[in-house]
Amino acid sequence: QVQLVESGGGLAQAGGSLRLSCVGTGRNPMGWFRQVPGKQREFVASIVLPDGSARYADSVKGRFTISRDNAKNTLYLQMTNLKPEDTADYYCNTILGVSTPIGAWGQGTQVTVSS
């Protein structure tokens, strides 16, 4: 099973930007998810088959952009206009359909947005 490695998290101010990376994607349909301690992991964005189109949670639509570089086996999440409620641990995963994660979780990358 492919190991996914997320990176790019950190501390940002509200209104700022961060770009997350996830290495190890292969050609699988992929998604980003996030989890706040004590809460359920939630869907953020995905690139779906067969057309490679993007899907987004309503809470991030217009602010986040998912993309991938197949040559580098890497998935990205460009996050702009960050809000304190975006603070979470972010994970990537292989998906089924639009938003069902089906692979093993990586270690994630932590994003903290200060107001």
What does this protein look like?
- This protein is mainly β and 115 residues long.
- Helices cover 0% and strands 50% of the residues.
- The chain has strands at residues 5-7, 10-13, 18-23, 30-35, 42-47, 54-56, 64-69, 74-79, 88-96, 100-101, 109-114.
- A hairpin with a 3-residue loop joins strand 9 and strand 10.
- The protein is globular.
Question: How would the blueprint of this fold be written?
Answer:
Layout: E1 5-7, E2 10-13, E3 18-23, E4 30-35, E5 42-47, E6 54-56, E7 64-69, E8 74-79, E9 88-96, E10 100-101, E11 109-114
Parallel strand pairs: 2-11
Antiparallel strand pairs: 1-3, 3-8, 4-5, 4-9, 5-6, 7-8, 9-10, 9-11
